[in-house]
Amino acid sequence: MAATTRRSSVTTPTTAATTPVPAGKPLPRWRLQVLLASCFLITIIIAVRLVDLQVVRSNDLARKARLEIETPTLLAPRRGQISDASGTVLAMDVERQSLFAVPPQVPAARKAEIAVLIAGLTDQPADQILSALRSDRQWVRLVRWLEPEVAAQVAELELPGLWLVYEPMRFYPQGISAAQVVGALNLNGEGVSGIEAYYDQLLRGTEGRIEGEFDPNRNPIATSLARTLPPQNGADLQLTIDPFIQQVAERELQKAIDEQNADGGTIIVLDPSSGAILAMANWPFFDPNRWQDYPPEVYGRNPAIGTIYEPGSTFKMVTAAAALSSGVVTTTTTVDDPGWVVRYGQVLRNFDAAPHGPLTLAGMIYYSSNVAALQFNELVGPETFYRVLTRFGFGQPTGVDLAGEESGIVNFYGSAGYNPLTFLTNAYGQGISVTPLQLVQAAGAIANDGVMMRPYVVQQICRNNACVSTEPQVVARPVTPDVARAVREMMVESANHYAPVIWGPRTGNWRDQWLVPGYRVGAKTGTASIPLPGGGYDPVYTIGSVLGIAPVDEPRFVVLVKIDRPKKDTLGVLTAIPVYYNVVEQLLRYAHIPPDRSLVSPGQP
After folding, report:
1. Do residues 201 and 79 lie in contact, with contact meaning Cβ atoms separated by under 8 Å?
2. Helix, strand, coil distribution of the chain in percent, nearest 5
3. Which of 564, 197, 172 has the alpha carbon at shortest distance from 405?
4. Is 105 exposed, middle or buried (0-12, 13-18, 19+ CB in 10 A)?
5. What are the pLDDT digits (tens) for 260-295?
6. Which residues of 22-32 are buried (b: 16+ CB within 10 A; e: fewer)?
7. Strand ranges inside 440-499, DSSP E
8. Residue 198 · residue 312 · CB < 8 Å
9. DSSP-assigned states of every residue in 5-27
10. What b/e readout covers 421-440, taking b as 16+ CB neighbours within 10 angstroms?
11. CA–CA separation, 475 vs 548, rounded Å?
12. CA neighbor of 318 nearest in space, from 353, 365, 269
């Protein structure tokens, strides 16, 4: 049996000899110096940086830090309401939800999808919305003033990064009524016309703010002290516009425009004793709730104050007033009207070239004689004539509290544009341009015994339960009471002369009669030529107008009717007289002025 060798599992320890570690080489001295210098340099840089941050730029950085958490939250004021004389609201703010986005919170992969969804709900261009979502801005408006049902649909989608925020929206409950007077706001909340523009700052009010510390989500930090400065809401304005009279003016104007296929028109009703504008209607109408749908010349201009035109024969009442004021002409002075005359190489004629023989000022107005008017101007002279025109306010704004008023064009005696031929044609309203309101203001002075008032449309301004009423303001006394009364009497004869336009077909009586049965009203018609851009006048179309006072003994209303380019009645008189009659007849009834039964012609009711 072979012997088996067994190895021991236990290792016998041995004692190893201890070998000393050899010492390393010492670091070179220059390395230590570099290390120490680097540490020193780093220390210097840190110290300089600390001094820069905590000493040099301390105030600036602290200010920026405060801005991060103390940027005030602005509080928008309510824009003031505008109402008519009866208190009916014409303009007001309503709350509508607008759609905003925080682009960084919108997932990049979903931006195109969200843009298409929003575009489908709001009818906005998808590429425009997508561009906004891809912008680097922190807060961007996508769509303003959503319809309530659209806002509800957007809210149901719960799209990330999109927010619905209430914003004030201007709303005009009466739509087109008195739209050119009230005006409109643009998308920035700025008035672009009318009262909204003229009184923009007063209506807008003053922003308020919350001052304090806020977290990145604009929530106030509870441990900080906050201070609230409340907004000052805009003032509320009550206008002089009478809703019934405005409705009458707009209805009668629309009817005339439709019947004549006219290009436009204006009706103004003024209280001559105060200057308060009771109605101001212009066509084309526009809806200020949708002002963007109209051209700028419609929503941005009020033709009653912003469009100038040659007044034609309505201006003859001013010519008569200037003649009587000169002291050279009296109510019995006559000139001969052969139908046409030659002056400075030009033939000047009546509208029909018909002769009328010797005429007084009353006859000049009654027959609307151009030839007589220019001869009276020759007796008066240019210096006196234009001095009276200046007192009547022609060639300068009336000062009405509406945006966009024009001054008119008058080539005064001694000015660069003056010439003696224009002086003669001015007598019958050619070669001179006025606004409709300037003409009404002048007639108001004749109605008010020679005292001319500043026209205005804001009757009362209210803020914080305190109201201030407009005080009527006298701006001139262009003629004496005697002259004013004499011209009014001439206008009564003129009104009766045109009464057959209304009553002839009804009664068969084509003679002079009372224009408005039961009342003495004054009226002067005008057929105004329309200048062409290249010179000369429109050979076909005119502006037909009537300027009048009712009643003449105790005047309550001055009324101007102006119809632009009537297509059927090219002289305009057959159009303007019925409109004037319809308006004045309703005004006198509305004012409860009792009729005089002696002022009724045979056959009239």
Report:
1. no
2. 40, 20, 40
3. 197
4. exposed
5. 999 999 999 999 999 999 999 999 999 999 999 999
6. eeeeeeeeeee
7. 452-453, 458-463, 466-469, 474-476
8. no
9. P---SSPPP--PPP-PPPPPPPP
10. ebbbbbbbbbbbbbbbbbbb
11. 21
12. 365
Q: What does the DSSP 8-state code read for residue 206? A: B
Helix 382-391 with 316-326: angle, nearest 10 deg: 110
Cβ-defined contacts of 460-469 (< 8 Å, 24+): 460/237, 460/238, 461/202, 461/235, 461/236, 461/237, 461/238, 462/235, 462/236, 462/237, 462/238, 463/80, 463/233, 463/235, 463/236
Q: What is the largest CA-CA distance in the chain?
A: 179
What's phi and psi for 336, nearest 5 deg? Answer: -95, 130
Read off the amino acid at residue 586: Q
pLDDT score at 388? 98
Residue with tokens 């049996």: 1
C-beta separation of 314 from 439 below 8 A: yes
The token duo for 108 is 């990049």
Q: How far apart are CA 42 and CA 29, in angstroms?
A: 20
Share of the chain above pLDDT 90, in %: 67
d(C-alpha 426, C-alpha 277), whole Å? 27
Tell me the C-alpha to C-alpha distance, in Å, between residue 98 and each of 95, 145, 437.
Answer: 10, 5, 41
- 82-83 and 236-239 beta bridge pairing: parallel
- No. of H helices and E strands in the chain? 20, 21
> What is the residue whose two structure tokens read 């057929």?
527
Whether residue 604 contacts residue 517, with contact meaning beta carbons closer than 8 Å, is answered with yes
Q: Two tokens at 553? A: 């003994």
Record the tokens describing residue 356, joined without a space. 């009328």
Written as one letter, the residue type at 49 is R
Torsion of CA 297, 298, 304, 308, to 10 degrees: 30
Q: What is the DSSP letter of 75?
A: E
Contact (CB, 8 A) for 477 and 388: no
Q: Is the pLDDT of residue 301 over 90?
A: yes
Give residue for tokens 């003696």.
420
| Distance (Å, whole) CA 286 – CA 289 | 9
In the sheet that holds 73-75, the strands lie side by side as 73-75, 208-211, 227-229
Look at the pTM and tell me if it is higher than 0.90: no
pLDDT at 159 over 70: yes
Q: How far apart are CA 430 and CA 538, in angstroms?
A: 13
3-state secondary structure labels for all residues of 361-380: HHHHHHHCCHHHHHHHHHHH
Backbone φ, ψ for residue 134 (5° rounding):
-90, 0
Cβ neighbours of 495 (radius 10 Å) = 29
Q: 284: cis peptide before it, omega within 30°?
A: yes
Tokens of 82: 């505008």
Determine which helix (DSSP H) or strand (DSSP E) holds 349, and give its type and residue range. Answer: strand 346-349
The count of other CB atoms within 10 Å of the CB of residue 409 is 14
Amino acid identity of residue 271, one-letter, is D
d(CA 569, CA 575): 6
User: pLDDT tens digit string along 437-480?
Assistant: 999 999 999 999 999 999 999 999 999 889 999 999 999 999 99
Which amino acid, one-letter code, is at 548?
A: G
Look up residue 136 and give its DSSP letter: S
Q: Taking a C-beta distance cutoff of 8 angstroms, is the pair 106, 64 a contact?
A: no
